[in-house]
Amino acid sequence: MKIAVDVERCVGAGVCVMAAPDVFDQNDDDGVVIVLEDQPSADQHGAVRDAAARCPAAVIHLRDA
Amino acid sequence: MSAHTSAAQPVDSLPQDRCPFDPDPRYKTLRETDPVVRVSTPAGLDVWLVTNYDDARSVLGDGETFSNVDASSSHLMGDKSDLGGTPPPGVILRYDGDEHSRLRLRLAREFMVKRVARMEPFVRQVVGEHIDRLANCEGPVDLYREFGLPVPALVISELLGVPESDREEFEQATSAQVDLRLSLEERQAAAIASAGFFTALVASKMENPGDDLISRLILEPTERPMTAEELQGIALLLLAAGHDTTANMITLGTHALLENPEQAAKLQDPAVLTTAVDELIRYLSIVHNGVLRKAVSDTEINGVHVRAGEHVAVVLESANRDPRFLGDADVLDLERHSAHVGFGYGAHQCLGQHLARLELRIALPELFRRVRGMRVVTPKDEIPFKNDMVVYGIRELIVDWDEVVA
Known about the structure:
- The structure holds 2 protein chains of 2 kinds.
- Chain A has helices at 15-19, 45-54, and strands at residues 2-5, 24-26, 33-35, 60-63.
- By secondary structure, chain A is α+β, with helices and mostly antiparallel strands.
- In chain A, strands 1-4 form a two-stranded antiparallel sheet. In chain A, strands 2-3 form a two-stranded antiparallel ribbon.
- By secondary structure, chain B is an alpha+beta fold.
- The relative contact order of chain B is 0.18.
- Classes of the chains: A alpha+beta, B alpha+beta.
């Protein structure tokens, strides 16, 4: 799995951090998403898919690595 | 309006018969037969009602087509005079595009997951103190007034940096303005008092900044410092968005849990708590009666043509019960996980959602753990629900109990 985020359109809701705290964080300045691990391990895939589905700005894109 | 219109009858006005945790039963039919339907609202505004989950997400997720400029309660009450006007300074709920994201992101960092987590000890303290107060009360009491309202009011006062000596006065004024047992005049007087409170608060922070949200916005190095009016608008918006919403979730949530004791028992399990609060938010969908958007260009929603300038009301309580989104959506199941739209969706999704989760994740289990034998005293058919308001809840919930433990 490979994660790409459209940082420009992120609204800083933090839903991804709640869903997958080991993979996503928020920038201290504006709450915008930071990807900690853009090729997360298999045990994180469920949480990452959940984060992508729940992201209110739909900026988390996943593809098979 | 009759209590229950038959399914065969066309729906031409906003369905408002919730009963009491479920949405108006007509939404079930509308989602199947007429998911985007033209209705008239109580304030006389014609809107396209959007009732299913997928359409709700597409409208709320498309801020370029659907503007927030009229996002207010004007479709429910008043004379629509608020519509089409310029949003008041700082009320970012009604801003669009770059102007919205500029301000939203300056606020987003205050509500980040890790920042909110730091408020946990304060929230625990406030919740604990208010349950202690119940212990010292002769029951029965109104849970909304004695617990639901003060907890979020005090959390907001901490966030905004209201000085400790003013907090009781702040809580009284902010709570009185949404207390529907008071007369309109009393509520208006309280609203003026609380606006005055913010004017004074912003002025004092500009003079003497501290370690709080308002002060950080003032001190932030930026090309365009915020005006006092913007800061007051932000403070008022955060109060409007974070106070009565949380208060109603606490009160209505308590009632729903008392009605579902097998679910309430699960609240003490920390593993369940990670899903429980979101499930309650989905199931109760207290932001109801439609969130308002305005089409800025001609468009289509689920095959229905919508013209530029027309209003769209997205019905969150219906979307959250859509069976195509979630099986057994009418059942409260605290162990369930879902991508619900109880906090909205899109660029305007609730900014304070993690703070709301924190407050509920502490307030509800603590209340149920400490207040033993809690029960609603008001007869079921006399509980006053807020069907006509933007935020659903109970005007007062009189409860009694056997004992309050430590």
